[in-house]
């Protein structure tokens, strides 16, 4: 076998004779740095090299952003381009000697690796998302500093990755931050803990110090999102101002020590990372405490992308800290049980958490002030205080109803498995056992069944099954069975997902008869709340699952207070719209009723119309009203005539005509949306009345459609969500000030534009008025009284039976 390059092990390369050889260059001069890509592309070959490709041109812009213009030599982890664009690990290994030799010949400077294949080639490690974090890396094979980062081509498809590329390229030109390992003291007796706390109390009496805190219990707060009270407290890390971190162990945490900690927290500015976890974890010992500064929320104010606000990520990226959690990962196992960590290592880890949280606070508070985001951070900290109560109290579960529902789901799922196996047996009696022959959860088995029916599938996901059902021609082999199986498979997957999340998932998470969902203030780019374990904001509207959520006492009720068309009203405010605003400001008028004749000239609402009436007139009116809603609610998401035509099976010309009529009555909104598109193209931030920013850093042909649709939705959606969040925060503060009794009203859930409250039956009317007033007041402030908001309230003895 003739090798394609003198230094490649082509004999052991799976790409040899199975991929297109793209040729190679050799360094003919020294360069400032070397860049290693994954596999070669045709555009590199025919456009005169990497620098002339779209990725190369993007890299040049990033260099220019940093005020640099370095010379570089470009190579790739492999020399051949597989047709399926998948590079086997063995191919990377076979080409590694060539890559390392080219690096040695080209530079003594840094090496930048684009993507997983390049990182594997130079570092022997993969997983670039985690690998890129923090200072430069070292290779076992070369002396150069190595900077792994995301491939520029990926950034063109996924705009959210572009800031990572910009940050990582900046590491080429800096020596990085020098992190000083913190000294710390472990306090293992109550006497030692009290002596230190009393000493700190006397020295900080004349000012309000920062008190940075971090707890360690038997779960990892950044990943587990469990209720901390369920888990054993292992230690508490504390640091006053810029003093040395102290770790108070569980041996030292007696009642007297907790009392002094409580007193210190009450008079200090409490600083934490994801503070509602730590403060709720200490709540049984110190009562409810207020959060002064949260580094996670500060990071989120400055960068609304998700997945970049964990403490370890930020400590490495912004402070130059080592990956100090690597040591603990050896011990915690898949359950992430921190009690398995040797105490000496755990205490060091806790001290690092405290020190890094403090340093990040100092780093972020300057940036928040510079960018005018201090008030947004304060707003989110207050919201976090409110969510502490929601999470801590949780929601009561009707255990008997849950058990019965679990049995119903199990039976329904089992029946579907049986019927699908019968269908498989009908298709191929020799290939399947009657009634027990196919696993619907196995994509391979589903593909095999469809292949037996003469249908080749590349995927078995939901979109594929919907495409099967939407296929207009009859399938040649048993068309009825194909469609019946695809329908049942979709139903089966929906049921198993609901069962796993809301039935067995709730059973696993039950604690004192309740479940305690975790709410994420930093979980979306728009600022909308998200929740998990379980997700209480995504239960299907009419699902029987909601009925298992009940008040904690038989003489209590649930109240749901929901904004009516909040996003549309905020849109009217932003655009200075007249059409919608006039309708919203008159409580006797209905937006959709008035728009039906606009889109369908001559349409008249039937007298005494009711939704359940099935007469021809009422049915037609209802269909037309539904279509109107599609156009209205599609406003914020850039829905086009093509999407509507496809979704409703109507001609594109008809959909286009409807949109033109609709847009003719809302010219201010049309112009506002044009201005939003222009702002995004000009690189301007979108900023809401609450100070949230949406930053779009890279527009390409590949991502511009999605970005523009998201941009149109951002301002109304984010603002409507924050209006509700502020109202909930104020109501919770009202409870603290006015309801000092045991069975006081409380928020038990928030769902986007709705606040859900539990209170005593005798207080339902009063509490409904109080919450409604807070909601209307919050909205009026946000839109400066331009458009009136409205709320609807419903009451019941379970979430599923509100009326």
Automatic annotation (TrEMBL):
- Which SUPFAM superfamilies does this chain map to? DNA/RNA polymerases, Ribonuclease H-like, Uracil-DNA glycosylase-like
Q: Does the keyword Transferase apply?
A: yes
Enzyme Commission numbers on file: 2.7.7.7
Q: Name one GO biological process term.
A: double-strand break repair
One MF annotation (Gene Ontology) recorded for this entry: DNA-directed DNA polymerase activity
What Pfam families has UniProt attached to this entry? DNA_pol_A (PF00476), DNA_pol_A_exo1 (PF01612), UDG (PF03167)
InterPro entries tied to this protein? 3'-5'_exonuclease_dom, DNA-dir_DNA_pol_A_palm_dom, DNA/RNA_pol_sf, DNA_polymerase_A, RNaseH-like_sf, RNaseH_sf, Uracil-DNA_glycosylase-like, Uracil-DNA_glycosylase-like_sf
- Catalyzed reactions: DNA(n) + a 2'-deoxyribonucleoside 5'-triphosphate = DNA(n+1) + diphosphate
Q: Keyword Transferase on this protein?
A: yes
Which positions fall inside the DNA-directed DNA polymerase family A palm domain? 542-763
- Keywords associated with the record: DNA replication, DNA-directed DNA polymerase, Nucleotidyltransferase, Transferase
* Similarity section: Belongs to the DNA polymerase type-A family.
Supply the name of the protein.
DNA polymerase I
Q: Which organism is it from?
A: Vecturithrix granuli
């Amino acid at each position: 076998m003739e090798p394609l390059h003198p230094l490649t092990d082509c004999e052991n390369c799976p790409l040899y004779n199975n991929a297109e050889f793209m040729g190679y260059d050799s360094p003919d001069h020294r360069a400032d740095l070397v860049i290693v890509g994954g596999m070669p592309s045709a555009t590199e070959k025919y456009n005169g090299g990497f620098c002339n490709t779209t990725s190369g041109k993007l890299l040049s812009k990033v260099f220019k952003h940093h005020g640099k213009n370095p010379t570089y030599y470009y190579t790739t982890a492999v020399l051949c381009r597989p047709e399926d664009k998948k590079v086997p690990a063995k191919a990377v290994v076979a080409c590694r000697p060539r890559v390392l030799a080219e690096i040695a010949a080209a530079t003594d400077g840094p090496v930048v690796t684009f993507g997983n294949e390049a990182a594997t080639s130079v570092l022997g490690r993969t997983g670039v998302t985690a690998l890129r974090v923090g200072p430069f890396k070292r290779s076992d094979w070369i002396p150069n500093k190595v900077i792994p980062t995301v491939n520029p081509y990926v950034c063109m498809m996924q705009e959210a990755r572009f800031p990572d590329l910009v940050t990582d390229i900046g590491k080429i030109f800096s020596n990085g931050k020098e992190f000083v390992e913190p000294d710390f003291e472990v306090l293992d007796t109550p006497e030692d803990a009290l002596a230190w706390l009393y000493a700190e109390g006397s020295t900080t009496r004349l000012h309000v110090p920062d008190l940075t805190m971090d707890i360690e219990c038997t779960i990892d707060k950044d990943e587990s999102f469990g209720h901390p009270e369920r888990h054993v407290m292992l230690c508490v890390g504390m640091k006053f101002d810029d003093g040395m971190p102290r770790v108070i162990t569980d041996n030292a945490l007696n009642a007297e020590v907790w009392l002094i900690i409580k007193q210190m927290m009450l008079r200090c500015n409490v600083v934490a990372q994801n503070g509602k976890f730590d403060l709720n974890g200490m709540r049984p010992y110190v009562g409810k405490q207020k959060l002064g500064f949260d580094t996670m929320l500060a990071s989120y104010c400055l960068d609304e992308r998700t997945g970049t606000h964990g403490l370890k990520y930020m400590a490495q990226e912004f402070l130059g800290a080592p990956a100090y959690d690597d040591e603990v990962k050896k011990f915690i196992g898949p359950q992430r049980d921190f009690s398995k960590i040797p105490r000496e290592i755990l205490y060091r880890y806790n001290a690092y958490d405290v020190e890094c949280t403090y340093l990040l606070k100092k780093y972020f508070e300057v940036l928040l002030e510079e960018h005018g985001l201090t008030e947004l951070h304060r707003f989110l900290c207050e919201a976090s205080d409110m969510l502490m109560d929601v999470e801590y109290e949780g929601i009561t579960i009707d255990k008997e109803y849950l058990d019965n529902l679990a049995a119903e789901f199990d039976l329904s799922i089992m029946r579907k498995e049986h019927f699908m196996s019968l269908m498989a047996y009908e298709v191929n009696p020799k290939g399947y056992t009657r009634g027990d022959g196919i696993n619907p959860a196995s994509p391979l088995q589903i593909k095999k069944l469809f292949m037996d029916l003469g249908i080749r599938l590349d995927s078995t996901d939901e979109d594929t099954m919907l495409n099967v059902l939407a296929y207009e021609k009859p399938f040649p082999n048993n068309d009825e069975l194909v469609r019946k199986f695809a329908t049942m498979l979709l139903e089966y997957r929906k049921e198993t997902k609901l069962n796993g999340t809301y039935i067995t998932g709730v059973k696993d998470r039950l604690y004192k008869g309740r479940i305690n969902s975790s709410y994420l203030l930093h979980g979306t780019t728009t600022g909308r709340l998200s929740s998990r374990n379980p997700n209480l904001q995504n239960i299907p509207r009419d699902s029987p699952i909601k009925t298992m959520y009940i008040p904690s006492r038989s003489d209590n009720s649930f109240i749901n207070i929901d904004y009516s068309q909040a996003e549309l009203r905020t849109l009217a405010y932003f655009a200075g719209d007249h059409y919608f605003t006039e309708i919203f400001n008159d409580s006797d008028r209905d937006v959709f009723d008035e728009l039906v004749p606009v889109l369908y000239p001559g349409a008249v609402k039937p007298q005494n119309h009711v939704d359940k009436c099935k007469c021809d007139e009422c049915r037609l009116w209802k269909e037309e009203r539904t279509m109107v809603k599609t156009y209205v609610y599609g406003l914020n998401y850039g829905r086009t005539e093509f999407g509507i035509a496809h979704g409703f099976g109507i001609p594109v010309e008809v959909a286009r005509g409807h949109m033109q009529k609709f847009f003719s009555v809302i010219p201010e909104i049309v112009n506002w949306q044009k201005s939003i598109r222009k702002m995004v193209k000009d690189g301007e931030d979108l900023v809401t009345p609450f100070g949230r920013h949406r930053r779009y850093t890279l527009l390409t042909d590949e991502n511009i459609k999605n970005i523009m649709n998201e941009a149109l939705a951002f301002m109304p959606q984010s603002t409507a969500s924050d209006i509700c969040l502020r109202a909930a925060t104020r109501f919770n503060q009202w409870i603290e000030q006015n309801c000092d009794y045991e069975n006081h009203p409380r928020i038990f859930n928030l769902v986007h534009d709705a606040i859900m409250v539990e209170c005593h039956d005798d207080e339902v009317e009063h509490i409904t008025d109080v919450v409604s007033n807070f909601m209307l007041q919050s909205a009026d402030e946000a839109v400066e009284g331009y458009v009136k908001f409205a709320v609807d309230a419903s009451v019941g003895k379970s979430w599923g039976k509100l009326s």
